[in-house]
Amino acid sequence: MKREVAAEIVESLKEAGVDFVATLTEANLHDLVMALGEDQAIHHVPVTREEEGIGVCAGAYLGGKKPAMVMMNAGFLLSTNALATVCIHPGIPVLLLIGHSGGVGEENAGHATVGALTEPVLQAMHIVYEKVGRFEEIRPTIRDSQMLARSSRRPTAIVLNKQALR
Amino acid sequence: MKRYECLRAIAPQFGDELVVTNLGAVRHEWQSLRPHHGNYHLQNLGLTSSMALGLALALPHRKVVAFDGDGSLLLNLGSLATIANQHPKNLIHIVFDNECYESSRGAPTATAGSADLAAVARGCGFANVGTTRTLAEFADAFTRALNANDLHFILAKVEPGAGDVPAAALDSQENKYLFVRYIEKSENLKILTSTLSRASESPSK
What we know:
By secondary structure, chain A is an alpha/beta fold. Chain A has helices at about 5-15, 30-40, 50-60, 75-80, 80-90, 110-125, 135-150, 160-165; strands at about 20-25, 45, 65-70, 95-100, 130, 155-160. Chain A has a single domain, classed as Rossmann fold, CATH 3.40.50.970.
């Protein structure tokens, strides 16, 4: 991810009211994770496993924070039980920013299966999501996805494609 | 000692502390001993410690107590590393270790073998770690943790067996709303959004 894209995401999260972010890094997310760690207005919790981050975000919500989770799609797939039991079942919103490996533009054959599963699993879980690539889409999509998460008391997702990640 | 006896021994010390309970009988035991809107009963095995961490970080001036279990923590050992690095001074992480999956008919967990969760916590960077085997040790460790301003991990080695208590009459949605409304009121926060009436926007004449 380019630094200006990472900076735009951080500023957009803050503008949308997000003040607490759990992350699990990856090469494509590195600049975003580092930028979140440096930002004083956001409490950053690097986690060891993505489903752990879902639990941390849900707890932060109960304490009045506005949380988001940054991870790759492999981590989203790992987090499905946590999202179902901790967020969707009781009604707890978390904004999910999901890097989409294995989608259009992917050069690594090993990511294709995870890439193909990502959207069907989001749909199966009834998680409303938007796919984002172009710079100018980032700010309105983060604002609107966060709005829906808060009003619906459910997780919502933004799937960052290769255009945003490279 | 049994888990229910441990909970009964410390319940009188609770005021406005926030509690996250693990899946299983502990939620019913705790709700019967301390019925309070500041109890959050998690319906997930594994994330008790992580939920408690998020809550403790969000409200650093409120004491947060996690009632975790060995089977749960073994699913989420990495959370100990995250908690130790975040180091919330207001969190007390209690693990009732009965060395089995009691709610799943009692097959042994890894702590029935060689695993020592207190050693894992120490290795992850927890400074205040205690293993307790008697009620007096447990109650004493809890009192010290409650009165201290630092992160604590208490491992309670317990025999299997649940307290003779009624099932807690709370479902997850109800529990969430009661808990969030309690936090909103006690912390003067607005957590749940509400939709304004649009009547005021309509032309008046």
